[in-house]
Design a protein that fits this description.
This protein has helices spanning 34-46, 123-137, 139-159, 165-204, 224-230, 232-238, 259-262, 265-287, 304-314, 328-333; strands at 3-9, 12-18, 23-27, 65-71, 77-83, 86-91, 94-96, 108-111, 211-216, 249-254, 257-258, 292-296, 319-323, 338-343, 346-349. By secondary structure, it is an alpha/beta fold.
């Protein structure tokens, strides 16, 4: 990324920010606009907000239009315009009609305090972790996922409307067809991230602990059809589909034991940190490009040893890091970083 222009985005009236190709540090008190910048970058990468499903909320209060334009060092651009409730996305000046066309243009890895709860959180957060990463390295997975959830939504609606056996077969066969493709992609992803995470975790813990990431599919290629047909009456009673890839989960084992049950808070945070760093390697492996790393107020959540490790690790990437204060650790270890002070939606260069 070279620069970003924001207009009427959240609390930002207008701002032009020119990035270093290394580490960029945005500091200031809470509610000044730091996370709004992170949201704008995530929007350029995915076409969606990381904070809300109501796109109107991204437009500055009192305005009807907003825009975010990101430019790269190679001259390419991504632009997202809002007018009232309508969003338009342009890549190199050409409007796109499908979000899948945007994926991979700006590979990113985002790490926020909420991600530290990945191990303890609900399965939907872990599925989102899987899906977000796979979509960035395989846009066809995005379309498969979209098709699956469209069919799932239709089947759930069908369950509440006097279903017939014949129509059940139609929806079930489609759900199984797309679900099996997703299972296959998730299995390959977990195998790859398991390899990367094991190396990184061993390094962080000085080879004193081992980490294993385990895919827990709700159904398999062998039993999907059997399970979904077996539970038809149950699904009709509940009005929802009880089996499928939308119920998948991940588990994490430290030295062969569940990190969720037996891991300390520090170990669980280390697992989350490891997964994010493993994402970087996977994206580079799949695309030959390093992603931009977005670190949103994460340093304050880590102990000193993990902060040291993270800061040393990210020096070789383009990073956007937000924090409240410029701690000595940052000043000493990121002397070549570019600093921005953030106040009331305005961005000032330098300390």
């Amino acid at each position: 990324m070279q620069k970003i222009f924001l207009k009427n985005f959240r609390n930002i009236d207008e701002a032009l920010i020119e990035f270093s190709d290394s580490v960029n540090i945005f500091y200031g008190q809470n509610a000044q606009g730091k996370t709004n910048l992170i949201e704008a970058l995530y929007l350029c990468a995915t076409g969606r907000s990381i904070r809300t499903n109501i796109e109107q909320e991204m437009i500055k209060f009192g305005s009807s239009i907003a825009s975010v334009k990101l430019a790269f060092f190679n001259g390419e651009t991504i632009c997202v315009n809002f007018e009232n409730a309508k969003k338009n996305i342009f890549v190199n000046g050409t409007q796109i009609t499908k979000l899948g066309e945007l994926l991979g243009k700006l590979p990113i890895v985002i790490f926020s305090p909420e991600d530290l709860q990945l191990i303890k959180s609900n399965p939907s957060a872990r599925r989102k972790f899987m899906d977000t990463e796979i979509c960035q390295i395989n846009k066809f997975y995005y379309y498969k996922l979209k098709q699956y959830y469209r069919i799932l939504h239709q089947r759930n609606a069908f369950l509440k409307n006097n279903p017939t056996v014949e129509m059940f077969d139609v929806w079930d066969n489609q759900l199984i067809e797309h679900g099996l493709k997703i299972i296959n992609e998730r299995e390959k992803f977990i195998q790859k991230i398991n390899e990367q995470a094991a190396k990184i975790y061993s390094h962080i813990t000085n080879a004193n602990e081992t980490l294993r990431v385990i895919y827990k599919p709700n159904v398999t290629s062998e039993d999907f059809a059997t399970k979904i047909k077996k539970h038809r009456d149950y699904d009709i009673f509940n009005g929802s589909t009880s089996n499928g890839i939308h119920k998948d989960d991940l588990t994490f084992e430290i030295n062969g034991k569940s990190a969720k049950i037996y891991g300390s808070q520090g170990q669980q945070k280390t697992v989350a940190l490891t997964l994010k760093l493993a994402e970087i390697n996977l994206i580079h492996e799949a695309t030959s490009k390093f992603p931009v790393l977005l670190l949103d107020d994460i340093l304050s959540e880590l102990d000193e040893s993990r902060r040291h490790f993270l800061i040393d690790y990210v020096k070789k990437f383009q990073v956007v890091l937000t924090c409240n204060n410029l701690e000595n650790l940052i000043k000493k270890n990121l002397t070549a970083a570019k600093f921005f002070r953030v106040q009331c939606g305005k961005f000032f260069n330098g300390e």
